[in-house]
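User: Can you help me understand a structure? I only have the sequence.
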Amino acid sequence: FLDIIFSFLGLAILSPIMRIIWFIGFFENGSPIFVQRRMGINEKIFLIIKFRTMKKGTKSVATHLINTSNITSFGHLLRITKLDEIPQLYNVLKGEMSMVGPRPCLTNQKKLIRERKLRGVFQVKPGITGLAQISGITMRTPTLLAESETIMIQKLNIYYYFYYIIKTFFFIFKK
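Assistant: Let's start by predicting it. Here is the structure, written out as tokens:
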């Protein structure tokens, strides 16, 4: 219920910012929106929506495997501020994601998928933010990531739901 309310309000409130980002992205590389296959709850594949931060034609692999020269100048700003994530509110509204949960992985991240399967991480909806994001844990360390997601899932309640969302804003502004 909270996911639906927050995603709807977020899309409504942030729509002017989304239009500006779309406009700038369109003129920077002609394609401001990026859609990618990701694994969701029960390993179901869905299309995640983000603002494009990399040049068109960049390989669909984990960000840490991409040459940073593929990140556009505007894309760099979007990544630092996490504004590239705003369109995912639509994924939350559709019920494919939650505000809080493990970040959805790419279908070709075999080691991370294996680690998540071992720990039952795919039994919950993926999220925009969570323990790994506020702790600075990335997909570079799949085992550590899956372990932190397991801890988050086991402890997740209404308090931690709000805690992770609020801490995410502090984490972004700290950067």
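Now, to help you interpret it: The beta strands are 33-39, 45-51, 98-100, 105-106, 127-129. The two ends are 31 Å apart (CA to CA). Let me know which part you'd like to focus on.
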